[in-house]
């Protein structure tokens, strides 16, 4: 039986109160296993980013629980959450993922450095990660000197550096052209095949096709959950499950 | 016409933007308002203090066209050069001791015949002027000290008879002074005694040529016209501080504007994409700067007027002058507002230019524009520093106003030059930050990335701190120069007055004294005898004393005299010549015993024994420039405030006795330096606080990234602290050469004073502000709220 890396046990998130109450995510049950690549799809405002923020310990649920690697995030103090983020969870955004004041190598080594690893050792691991994403030659470049695709590859390398096994990606290909986007997706797939876990928020059906499973969200609720077929990208969009269907 | 319509449309957007970014707009208004308030308030108070140049001249020159000063015989000898019908009024200034029952007070005595040309120089507050020989007018200080009323009697030590107090009067320039005024003594004065002559010429235009003639005879001469043209020190001070305030404001406003423009990069790109030309963009940003400055200047003017109104009732007691009625200074007020607006426009010009020249595609992308090269800044900085060094070097070669102008402009170029170098320095440091701890690495790299914004911040810090460095360097050098003239060591006390002997004994007993002795001078014909090493020019008076005096002067185990003169000054001759007060005729030549003086004293230069004094048939009397018995006491340890207070208590318990120590003479410069240092630190803190706040706003996305990679909450605080400390440290570090340069120039132009680097003050400067900045930023920055909203708001 495979290990559960991420578990939503009835977790919900609301903002505001009274008449201004917004239910960004209704009570949700979701489980992601090791080695799985799960794509989250849904229209704007459906709660995708909220779900990812809860999974990444960037926010706390209003009710229910979120478990990462078997650990209830609600039971952790801010300092322990920070430790969780640098040892277990990697995060990739659509853009502005990297600290512009650090080189590509330093950006990747950052979680290791924050975890107390010696700088030279952290840089060694960062170099390996850079080599893996094919950017070893750009190790000393600053983010402003990298293209969007290169920046995302550096961000993915950072998300998996060290012992981290869960990657949360919020539209990582949103700002990239299709070719570069495919390179990024291939990279994610490769990591998941090697035993890592990834949750990917995307609007792009072709990218969802790389996932083992696609979860559909609408108005804060999971409305469907399906394994993507190998030829998902070739299927007309109308054949996809209707977001409003139960 | 279409330009104005476009500008109106753009200005509307800008003005609404000002309202949207209220905090930043308010900050810019305050930055403009503060120097405007200072300049408006200062100019009003200046106007009240010195209403017009004519009044300023009148307070010193009276109604005279020319004032000359010198020995009476020298002045009399020049009388024939005065044009016919020249009116001459004399003023004799001397030191005088006033005695009232139970009290002796030392005061300055003016002898002149009122009413005359001197009338504006002496203001009667109560009663009338002295019109008879047995009448006197006293200043309020003397009236208070002596608990005197009009009609009371006082005794002048020099006359030995009583005079009746008939009025209360002051020197309008020094109303807190101890001053008394009488008619001139009828006793014939010695030819060598000094007098001031006030001359009213029939033809005032002849004053200049007469002055030139008198100056050639080494008399002190000043014409009313010359005094009128002297630089107004108060005005210069207001100008310096006001100018510095505006420079600081311009630099910080420029940084704030740069952040604002950067944050609105996409919006500006949209405006440009909608058809706005670069000129429109620049024009609209300048319009918003002007609008901000107008409101800020208005606030500043109101605060300045209110401040001056509040200060006015206390002004006389603060500046020690009789000030005029409250009146506005419309010219300087309008100038202050105009300078405030100009400051804002200049501050906005650079960011506006940057925004206008940004390619539309880059602007719309929201990405940081390509870095500007820093080599140009370095070259400009070095050029300005070169100019500063040149101006400072040539300033002593000029005279009058030119010296003042060059001395002021040199440091300004220096500050701007070091400031202009700062973007290059920030860039270089950012490239070498790889080995630093994370928070410091991020701070240094961020400072390098935002160098065009942080350069002005560093310049603003260095401008403020340079002032305190200049003062520290000047004061340390002057103090070192004065060491050679020190009248007393730190462990010595002078006890003065009628009961000086008894008081010195009590002080020596109660404060663990090593030795005490009377300070007496060898005299001839009533004048002090001087000594000098044979073949040299330097003269110093000769004390008469014994082993006790030598010990009191600082020698632990003085050798016996044996017919020799103890030389307390360094010299290279084996004999010392004793000379009369006037002339170079040698009275005697004695073998010299040069002694290693533990701390060089200004007085006396030589000591002879009582036996030698009698052998040489010299008299003994008070030391030069002293009118009462003087004893010197040396303590085992340096004098402290507490010990000095104890000595004062002992002296106060005996009639007409007082104590003096170096402690008293060193306090004022320290207080002045302390005030300037605190002012500089506060200014620096304000500037760094603004810079750190702006940086926090701009680097919000970086903070989110740090959260997602697992940075501990405290990293945000350490990062903010490092940012503040780094910028302030660089500013302080650059302020050291920028501040020492004018101090070096000023000190080296004063002959005989060595330039001293004030290491302690420099260390305080280099580390004080960075430490306080770090702590301040650390305390004020809350740990990052790691919330979903923060992520959503990226």
Which helices and strands appear, and what pairs or packs with what?
The complex is a heterodimer of chains A (246) and B (794).
Chain A: E1 4-15, E2 22-33, E3 37-41, H1 48-55, E4 63-68, E5 71-72, H2 78-87, E6 89-92, H3 104-114, H4 119-132, H5 148-160, E7 166-170, H6 178-193, E8 197-201, H7 205-208, E9 213-218, E10 221-226
Parallel strand pairs in A: 3-8, 3-9, 6-7, 7-8
Antiparallel strand pairs in A: 1-2, 1-4, 4-5, 9-10
Helix pairs in contact in A: 3-4, 3-5, 4-5, 5-6
Chain B: H1 2-20, H2 22-49, H3 53-61, E1 66-71, H4 72-77, E2 87-100, E3 103-111, E4 123-127, E5 135-138, H5 140-145, E6 153-156, E7 161-170, E8 179-182, E9 194-200, H6 207-215, E10 220-223, H7 224-228, H8 233-263, H9 265-273, H10 278-311, H11 315-319, H12 330-357, H13 360-365, H14 375-394, H15 401-431, H16 438-449, H17 451-483, E11 492-497, H18 500-510, E12 513-518, E13 520-524, E14 527-528, E15 530-533, E16 540-544, H19 547-553, E17 565-567, E18 575-579, E19 588-594, E20 606-608, H20 610-615, E21 619-621, E22 630-635, H21 641-652, E23 657-660, H22 662-698, H23 700-708, H24 713-748, H25 759-780, H26 788-792
Parallel strand pairs in B: 3-8, 5-7, 16-20, 17-19
Antiparallel strand pairs in B: 1-9, 1-10, 2-3, 2-6, 2-9, 4-7, 5-8, 6-7, 11-22, 11-23, 12-22, 13-14, 13-16, 13-21, 15-16, 15-18, 17-20, 18-19
Helix pairs in contact in B: 1-10, 2-8, 2-10, 2-12, 8-12, 8-17, 8-22, 10-12, 14-15, 14-24, 15-16, 15-17, 15-24, 16-24, 17-22, 17-24, 18-21, 22-24, 22-25, 24-25
């Amino acid at each position: 039986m495979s290990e559960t890396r991420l578990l939503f046990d009835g977790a919900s998130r609301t903002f505001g109160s009274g008449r201004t109450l917004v239910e960004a995510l209704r009570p949700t049950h979701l489980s992601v296993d090791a080695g799985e690549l799960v794509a989250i799809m849904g229209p704007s405002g459906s709660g995708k980013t909220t779900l990812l923020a809860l999974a990444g310990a960037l926010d706390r649920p209003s009710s229910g629980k979120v478990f990462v690697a078997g650990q209830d995030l609600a039971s952790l103090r801010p300092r322990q959450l920070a430790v969780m983020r640098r040892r277990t969870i990697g995060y990739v955004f659509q853009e502005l993922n990297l600290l512009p004041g650090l080189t590509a190598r330093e950006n990747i080594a950052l979680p290791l450095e924050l975890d107390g690893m010696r700088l030279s050792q952290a840089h060694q691991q960062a170099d390996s990660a850079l080599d893996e994403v094919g950017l070893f030659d750009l190790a000393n470049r600053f983010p402003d000197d990298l293209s969007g695709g290169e920046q995302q590859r550096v961000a993915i390398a950072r998300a998996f550096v060290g012992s981290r096994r869960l990657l949360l990606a919020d539209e990582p290909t949103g700002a990239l052209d299709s070719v570069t986007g495919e390179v990024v997706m291939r990279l994610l797939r490769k990591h998941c095949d090697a035993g890592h876990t990834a949750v990917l928020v995307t609007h792009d059906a072709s990218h969802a096709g790389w996932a083992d499973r696609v979860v559909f969200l609408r108005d804060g609720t999971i409305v469907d959950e399906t394994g993507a077929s190998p030829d998902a990208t070739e299927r007309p969009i109308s054949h996809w499950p209707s977001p409003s269907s139960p | 016409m279409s330009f104005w319509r476009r500008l109106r449309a753009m200005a509307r957007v800008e003005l609404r933007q000002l309202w949207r970014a209220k905090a930043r707009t308010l900050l810019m208004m305050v930055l403009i308002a503060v120097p405007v308030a200072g300049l408006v308030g200062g100019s009003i108070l200046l106007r009240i203090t010195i209403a017009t140049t004519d009044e300023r001249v009148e307070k010193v020159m009276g109604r005279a066209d020319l004032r000359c000063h010198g020995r009476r015989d020298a002045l009399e000898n020049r009388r024939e050069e005065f044009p016919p019908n020249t009116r001459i009024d004399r003023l004799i200034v001397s030191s005088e001791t006033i005695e009232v029952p139970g009290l002796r007070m030392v005061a300055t005595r003016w002898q002149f015949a009122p009413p005359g040309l001197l009338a504006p120089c002496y203001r009667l507050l109560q009663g009338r002027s002295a019109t008879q020989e047995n009448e006197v007018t006293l200043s309020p200080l003397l009236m208070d000290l002596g608990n005197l009323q009009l009609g009371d009697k006082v005794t002048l030590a020099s006359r030995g008879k009583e005079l009746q107090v008939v009025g209360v009067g002051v020197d309008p320039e020094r109303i807190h002074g101890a001053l008394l005024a009488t008619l001139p003594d009828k006793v014939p004065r010695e030819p060598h005694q000094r007098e001031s002559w006030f001359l009213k010429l029939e033809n005032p235009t002849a004053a200049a040529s007469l002055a030139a003639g008198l100056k050639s005879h080494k008399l002190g001469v000043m014409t009313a016209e010359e005094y009128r043209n002297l630089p107004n020190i108060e005005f210069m001070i207001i100008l310096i501080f006001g100018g510095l305030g505006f420079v600081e404001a311009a630099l910080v406003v420029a940084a704030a504007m740069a952040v604002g423009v950067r944050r609105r990069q996409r919006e500006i790109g949209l405006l440009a994409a909608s058809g706005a030309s670069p000129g429109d963009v620049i024009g609209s940003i300048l319009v918003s700067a002007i609008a901000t400055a107008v409101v800020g200047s208005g606030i500043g003017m109101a605060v300045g007027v209110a401040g001056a109104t509040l200060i006015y009732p206390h002004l006389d007691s603060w500046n020690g002058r009789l000030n005029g009625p409250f009146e506005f200074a419309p010219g300087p007020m309008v100038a202050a507002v105009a300078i405030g607006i100009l400051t804002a426009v200049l501050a906005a010009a650079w960011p506006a230019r940057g925004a206008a020249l940004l390619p539309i595609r880059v602007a719309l992308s929201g990405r940081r524009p390509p870095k500007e090269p820093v080599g140009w800044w370095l070259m400009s900085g070095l050029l300005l520093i070169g100019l500063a060094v040149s101006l400072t070097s040539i300033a002593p070669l000029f005279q009058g106003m030119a010296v003042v102008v060059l001395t002021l402009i040199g440091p300004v170029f220096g500050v701007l030059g070091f400031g202009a170098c700062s973007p290059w320095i920030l860039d270089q440091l950012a490239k070498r930050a790889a080995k630093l701890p994370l928070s410091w690495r991020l701070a240094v790299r961020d400072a390098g990335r935002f160098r065009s914004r942080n350069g002005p911040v560093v310049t603003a810090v260095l401008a403020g701190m340079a002032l305190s460095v200049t003062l520290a360097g000047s004061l340390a050098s002057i103090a070192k120069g004065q060491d050679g003239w020190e009248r007393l060591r730190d462990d010595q006390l002078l006890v003065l007055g009628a009961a000086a002997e008894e008081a010195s004994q009590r002080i020596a007993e109660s404060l663990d004294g090593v030795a005490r002795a009377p300070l007496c001078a060898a005299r001839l014909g009533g004048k002090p005898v001087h000594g000098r090493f044979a073949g040299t020019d330097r003269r110093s008076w000769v004390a008469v004393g014994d082993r006790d005096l030598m010990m009191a002067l600082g020698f632990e185990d003085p050798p016996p005299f044996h017919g020799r003169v103890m030389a307390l000054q360094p010299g290279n001759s084996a004999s010392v010549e004793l000379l009369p007060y006037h002339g170079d005729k040698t009275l005697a030549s004695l073998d010299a015993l040069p002694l290693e003086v533990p701390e060089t004293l200004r007085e006396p230069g030589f000591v002879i024994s009582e036996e030698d004094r009698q052998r040489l048939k010299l008299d003994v009397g008070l030391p030069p420039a002293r009118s009462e018995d003087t004893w010197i006491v040396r303590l085992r340890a340096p004098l402290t405030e507490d010990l000095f207070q104890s000595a004062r208590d002992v002296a106060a318990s005996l009639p007409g006795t007082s104590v003096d120590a170096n402690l008293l003479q060193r306090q004022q410069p320290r207080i002045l330096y302390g005030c300037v240092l605190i002012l500089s630190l506060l200014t620096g803190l304000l500037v760094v606080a603004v810079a750190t706040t702006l940086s926090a706003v701009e680097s919000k996305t970086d903070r989110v990234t740090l959260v997602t990679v697992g940075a501990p909450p405290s990293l945000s605080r350490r990062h903010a602290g490092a940012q503040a400390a780094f910028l302030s440290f660089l500013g302080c570090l650059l302020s050291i050469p920028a501040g020492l340069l004018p101090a070096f120039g000023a000190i080296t132009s004063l002959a005989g004073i060595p330039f001293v680097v004030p290491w302690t003050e420099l260390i305080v400067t280099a580390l004080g502000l960075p430490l306080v900045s770090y702590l301040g930023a650390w305390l004020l920055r809350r740990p990052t709220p790691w919330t979903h909203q923060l992520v959503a708001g990226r």
